[in-house]
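G., the chain you wanted modeled:
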Amino acid sequence: MNIGLSIVATIYLTGCYLEEFTERALAAAEQAGFAPEDVEVVFVNDGSPDNALQDALAVRKRHPQVRVIDLSRNFGHHKAMMTGLRESRGEYVFLLDSDLEESPEWLIEFKAHMTSHGYDAVYGVQDTRKGKWFERCSGELFYTIFNVFSAYKVTSNSVTARLMTRDFVDALIAHGESAPFLFGLASSTGFAQYPCTVQKKDSSPTSYIFIRDSC
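Predicted structure as C-alpha cells:
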C-alpha cells in the first residue's frame, strides 16, 4: 500500500541521533503538508558495529511510523541507500543521512521547489564542501575524475539528501546495479532534477570510507 511520504536513512554509528532525527523529520513532513498517518521513516541498519540497531528498535517503539531494515552485514552506504529506496512505499521519497549533518528540515524547501516547478527530484549541493583539507580535496578530485570518464555528469559537492517522486525512484532502482554509485545513477536516470544549495553541519566524524562511499 502506497503512502504519501517515505523518509529513508541508513544507520552506521549513528544510533545516538535517531530519536532527534525522527522527531525533526516527522515535524518537517507535517510542515511540508503530509499528514502524520501518511508518513513512514525507513531506517536501514548497514551492519553498524555498535548498538545502533537497538537504538533504532527503541525509536520504533515510540514512533509507529518507523520501520527498521537490518542488513546481514555492512554493504556500504550506496547499497544500503538503494535497499531503503526499494523498501520505500511513498509517492514521495526523502533520502538523507541520519547523523543530522543534513537537516531534516530541508524537506520543506525541497518540497516547495518540487511543487512550484514540477521537478521529479530535488537534491542538495554544498557551496563549499565541509571538512578538513583532505576531505575537501579528495572529494573534488573524485568528482572531477568521475565526470571525465562518465557520460553522465554528477554535480560536485552533492550530498545524500534528495526528495524524489515515486516515478523517479522506480526508474532509479530499475537499473539493478550490483555495485551502485547512487549519484551517478540519479544523473543517468534523467527526469527533471534541481540542485538546491545547502549547508551541512559538523555533528559527527565520517563513518564511511571515502573511496567506497563518497557523498
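The chain has seven helices and seven strands.

Shout if anything looks off.
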